[in-house]
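User: quick one, fold this
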Amino acid sequence: MTAREQKKLLDELKRYEPAMIPADRDAYKMMVKRQKDDEDFDSLTEQKLTALHGKYVKFKSKSDFDQFFKK
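Assistant:
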């Protein structure tokens, strides 16, 4: 995982930080500190980051909103 991908995932998770459970929030804060120090993430941390991203960030498809905007 590149530094750019890590930064993108961390930026997307920033919005969901208040909704995280305390253990996830602590892990997220630790990852942010490591990112600021320009440290490379090891494979375990990368797995935790992708798991957190999958757990909290949900993308809705645009077709879900078609029922509200009929032509």
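User: anything notable?
Assistant: Residues 3-54 form one domain.
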